[in-house]
Amino acid sequence: MSRRDFLANFAYGLGSLGLAHCLGQGLATGGTIGAGPARRGDGPIGWDDPTAPPDLTTPRGAMSDLHFPAKAKRVIVLFQSGGPSQLELFDHKPLLQEQQGQQLPDSVRGQQRLTGMSGNQSSLPLVGSPFQFQQHGGGGTWFSELLPHTSALADDLCVIRSMYTESINHGPGVTFFQTGSQLPGRPSMGAWLDYGLGSGNENLPAYVVMVTKNKGGQPLSARLWGSGFLPAQHDGVLFRSGPDPLLYLNLPAGVDRAARRSMLDAMHELQAHEAAQTGWTELESKIQQHELAFRMQSSIPEVTDFSSEPEHVLDLYGPSVKDPGSYAANCLMARRLAQRGVRFIQLFHQDWDHHGGLPGGIRNLCQETDRPSAALVQDLKQHGMLDDTLVIWGGEFGRTNYCQGKLTGADYGRDHHPRCFSLWLAGGGIRGGMSYGQTDEYGYNVVENPVHIHDLHATLLRLLGIDHTRLTYKYQGRYFRLTDVHGHVLQDIIA
Questions:
Q1: Which of 122, 195, 294, 446 is the most buried (most CB within 10 A)?
Q2: d(CA 73, CA 385)
Q3: Do the Cβ atoms of 179 and 187 come closer than 8 Å?
Q4: What's the structural domain count of the chain?
Q5: Distance CA 462, CA 470 (A)
Q6: DSSP category for residue 310
Q7: Where does 150-263 show beta strands of DSSP type E?
Q8: pLDDT tens-digit profile of 230-276?
């Protein structure tokens, strides 16, 4: 080989490395480049041939190809970021009212750790909820007076009062709920579902995220709806409030749709040539993303336009539904996206972190969320979609039964509490009209049917027809899954 030939070939090699870097594919990560299968397991959701590369061009997850008969086709998660207090909403504990101001017994707390915010308190006074509780529905489920609209749907809901998690602070707590791990970098729930099942609509993303505008509280990061070590095509797509839900979706001045189509065709021809030379399937993934963006230029304006919604539907969600980016507007958007085949939809509503001023703060939050959350369930039911749409409402952990800081009159706060908290589920094969699990009379420890975050994830996947132990991805030498190393399906709450 001449010196000129050597330098030319060397330059091509550097160019290939640069292209791999631009595609976000680290050559040493153990990902899909030259790593064999991305998934394993019996049945169509895993590849039976351990040497076969992943096929990123073929839609996956046809309902006839699942591990189990699917009860749900899509999921909507109404995530209340900050940790809503279960003691003011779902977990009725009259003993706390009776022992108001008395110390949390050592026998109840045991050796459980406290956060740095209340761990140095010399006093841990018990505090009961000032809000009235009543039983609702045929199952007699307890709800607070703060949730009049949600409690009216008691026969459609399953309230789990025995959730627990491993995280005591917001960052790892929210990350654990979303990804099954306290450490950043794992794929989110929606990314796993997009990877395992594919999209139900070629003109919209399979995974959409919305965040209520103008809310304070703990910050949210895009990694919470990211794809982690899965291919980037499985990232959640964040819809913004206002006239442009997605940045750069509209055509720039002087460029019409025909010109954009011609540009994409030329670019795809070049990328296809490169893919044929290198064998990199990530280039095909990029082509698919470009095509989806092109199709979304017409589909997104249609789905975000509420003008076709009847007035009685808008009234169901409340007056703020006409304010783009509000929680009510996002709930209605969730129904419209679900109606059009979006697989996983997640709403984030912040500011539930009430270390002080809890009575007034939680009242305001319930006024923002109670009616729209219930309206979404009602709306899905009226459209005949609730039976195959799983709705989940909850936060990353619960709150303590004792007051953080000084207990003064009717005002108080509660610290983080991972040992027990509550959430509710509806539709998608869930048995309604029931509560599941129980905490002790102090509302501090789970005493019946504990439910770990991994159990919730395993149940979610089972309702979608997936065995949670068989949806895996090989990364850095081992196979990962959403439930990682454990998780049990909650058969008792499945209809």
A1: 195
A2: 9
A3: yes
A4: 2
A5: 11
A6: -
A7: 157-164, 207-211, 237-239
A8: 988 899 999 988 777 877 676 676 777 777 677 777 877 787 777 77
